[in-house]
Amino acid sequence: MISRFFNTTTGDETFVREKVIPLIDSHDEHISHIAMHTVIRLIQTQLINNIQCLEKIISLYPHCQSRYFFKVIKKFISIEDEDDDERLLDYIFKVAEKSKSFCMKVLNETDNVLIKSYCIDIIAEIGQSSSINIADCYQQVLDISTKLVNEEQFVSYPFISYYFVSMLKNFQEETKDVIFPLLKKLANSLENDEKIQNVKKSFELASNIAEIIDKNDECINLLPQITSFVNKKLISSNKEENNRACGVILSCPKKFSDSSASEFSTKIIDFASTNKSINEMKLITLTLHKLIKHHHIPESVFLHFTEKLLEGQLPVLHGEILPNQIPLQPNLFNYLIDFVTKYPSNQRIIQKMNDWLDNENG
Predict the structure, then answer these.
(1) 312 torsion bin: left (phi>0), alpha (psi -120 to 50), beta (else)
(2) Which contiguous run of DSSP H or E holds residue 341?
(3) How crowded is residue 131: how many other Cβ atoms within 10 Å of its Cβ?
(4) What is the pLDDT of residue 9?
(5) What is the reported pTM?
(6) What is the CB neighbour count within 10 angstroms for residue 201?
(7) Where would I find the beta strands (DSSP E) of 201-328?
(8) CA dihedral defined by 150, 153, 154, 158, rounded to 10 degrees?
(9) Which residues are CB-contacts of 313 (< 8 A; sequence separation ≥ 6)?
(10) Which residues of the chain have pLDDT under 70?
């Protein structure tokens, strides 16, 4: 509601700065959560993008040390400048400097592993925007990260993995000799991901490692841990874990073996066949697209699913064939194109699609 009727000329920014932002530090978890989302929404729509609001948020520390607090700071950094606006570039630079100074101060003062992790995560986000902003501190943060990994502070691993992604993007030659040996410890933690204490973060860890593998052949030895993790999550009874496992696959789709790709596809097809969500099916078909494109997978893995798709028998189609869907689901048409391109000998599937075209033209 605030973001919808926000008006900079009537003092709404002052209201947000003085009344809404402090609610992030509320003892009521629900209020804190709503305040965080409100502020993030205002940042995303560039309604409170100024140093004064960032300083107000930072001033809540150390009394406020919640994940919401650090998430809001990170969101300030995530604003992208698509038009090379000089004023926005200057703002982004100032936000990065202010956030970096705050995080480095906290990193040097706190013993709390989770707070250290949040700060490392913010420094990584700054680095993703511009390496110049962290050129004077990346080595110190790398030393802190190395210490946390060697101490087996598992809760920090997802955040540190993101920092490693940022370092290998910006300072690969300077950092790879330190990072590559540490990655094995991060990857091995996925064998018992309960140690990370956060299901969502374990997937972020796996995705970050997979992204590093995708861009660095020297890290291919870590693929078995990622493969094992994905296989375990694809058969989870938790649908969200199934979907997140697809996200991990998409981080390095080319690197898996054909046999692993076949195993993934078999499991994905299994839950895709009962899926009712259009949005989830978009993720599923994108994952299948990448696996079909890059790997040799037996046609039989996909055949039953494809036939049910053609006949409108998948739950997501509600008994209607694809051309009759409202709205249309182009991702499922694209899946059929992938299928007939990869397996052109299956004339029945091709003829069925031709029949659709004939009926449409007729």
Answers:
(1) left
(2) helix 330-342
(3) 15
(4) 46
(5) 0.91
(6) 19
(7) none
(8) -80
(9) 319
(10) 1-11, 49, 79-85, 360-362
